[in-house]
């Protein structure tokens, strides 16, 4: 008996979903057939790929972790062979991970532009915290994701995508809205609307301002950039938000950018993807499109 493609598919699905039952459902198999395929694969390899614990999800063994990138890449090669004609239109459903700010600003427009080029493609954007996204990338549940930081993470390739500028904004009636040549020290005692203290933007902002004005007074706090934006528009205080998020409001006068001469806040947005696997033709094409259109697209 030799290793079959179906056995490798069951292994990959079970490793991703943590359950033979879920793997069977994904592959349109019976649970017994999926279990048999997984058992046969482990017999052929003469080593366990999963550790079984009653009442718990499957736990992949060290050997399973070692083999998984090879198996995932092999499955990708098979898919490419099945679509060997490079002129075959791209098709299928692509799942893209993204942090909230990117999903709420530049990404939807890029997805629509890509789907117009490839009408048989559907895209689903899943918004998650960076830590959760890295775990999904490590489990190969995601092949591509867009994040707001550029750390060094084992097993994840990070490519600089674009730079994001954060600006200080207020409602037009705010007492500082019309003042020119402000300095950071002029913000002392002002009320703020901000993301939660644990967010990367909020923690960095507080650190940047602390030396000159001490702890900022946050009267409105939210886990959503859009909630902070609405609170600032309503007159709740100063907000620090991505220019991409508030540019429309600045253009139509609903918000004003504070002219703070000694304030500058930028961050790198990165394309994150697993290092160890060969990715699908569809994912590769989408990543190439993102990198080609770092500065955006016209719809």
Q: Features of this protein?
A:
3 domains; two-stranded antiparallel ribbon; Arc Repressor Mutant, subunit A; 299 residues; D-Maltodextrin-Binding Protein, domain 2; alpha/beta; nine-stranded mixed β-sheet
- Give the rounded overall mean pLDDT: 88
State the helix count.
11
Strand content: 15-25%
The appropriate CATH architecture of the largest domain is 3-Layer(aba) Sandwich
And the CATH topology of the largest domain?
D-Maltodextrin-Binding Protein, domain 2
Stretches where pLDDT is under 50 for at least 5 consecutive residues are: none
The CATH superfamily of the largest domain turns out to be Periplasmic binding protein-like II
- Helix proportion: 40-55%
First-residue to last-residue Cα separation: 54 Å
Radius of gyration: 24 Å
Word description of this protein:
The protein has 299 residues and is α/β, with parallel strands linked by helices. It has three domains: 5-82, Arc Repressor Mutant, subunit A (Orthogonal Bundle); 92-162 and 268-292, D-Maltodextrin-Binding Protein, domain 2, CATH 3.40.190.10; 163-266, D-Maltodextrin-Binding Protein, domain 2 (3-Layer(aba) Sandwich), CATH 3.40.190.10. The protein is built from eleven helices and eleven strands. It has helices at 5-17, 20-26, 31-45, 62-82, 100-104, 106-117, 130-138, 200-213, 225-233, 243-252, 281-292; strands at residues 50-51, 59-60, 92-98, 121-127, 145-147, 156-170, 191-195, 217-222, 238-242, 256-257, 266-274. Helix 1 (5-17) crosses helix 2 and helix 1 crosses helix 3 (31-45). The chain is elongated and about 80 Å long. 27% of the residues are buried. The model has no long low-confidence stretch (mean pLDDT 88).
């Amino acid at each position: 008996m030799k290793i079959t493609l179906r056995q490798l598919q069951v292994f990959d699905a079970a490793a991703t979903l943590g359950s033979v039952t879920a793997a069977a459902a994904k592959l349109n198999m019976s649970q017994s057939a999926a279990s048999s395929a997984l058992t046969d694969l482990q017999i052929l390899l003469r080593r366990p790929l999963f550790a079984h614990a009653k009442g718990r999800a499957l736990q992949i063994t060290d050997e399973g972790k070692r083999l998984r990138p090879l198996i995932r890449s092999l499955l990708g090669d098979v898919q490419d062979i099945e679509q060997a004609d490079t002129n075959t239109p791209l098709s299928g459903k692509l799942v893209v991970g993204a942090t909230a700010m990117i999903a709420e600003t530049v990404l939807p427009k890029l997805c629509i532009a890509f789907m117009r080029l490839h009408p048989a493609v559907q895209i689903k954007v899943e918004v998650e915290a960076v830590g959760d996204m890295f775990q999904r990338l490590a489990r190969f549940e995601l092949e591509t994701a867009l994040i707001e930081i550029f750390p060094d993470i084992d097993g994840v390739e990070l490519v600089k995508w674009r730079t994001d500028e954060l600006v200080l904004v207020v409602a037009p009636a705010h007492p500082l809205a019309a003042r020119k040549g402000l300095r950071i020290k002029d913000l002392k005692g002002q009320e703020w609307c901000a993301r939660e203290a644990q967010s990367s933007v909020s923690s960095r902002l507080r650190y940047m301002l602390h030396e000159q004005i001490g702890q900022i007074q946050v009267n409105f706090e939210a886990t959503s950039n859009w909630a902070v934006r609405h609170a600032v528009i309503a007159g709740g205080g100063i907000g620090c938000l991505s220019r991409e998020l508030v540019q429309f409001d600045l253009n139509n006068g609903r918000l004003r950018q504070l002219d703070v001469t000694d304030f500058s806040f930028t961050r790198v947005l990165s394309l994150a993807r697993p290092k160890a696997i060969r990715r699908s033709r569809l994912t590769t094409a989408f990543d190439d499109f993102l990198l080609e259109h770092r500065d955006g697209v016209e719809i």
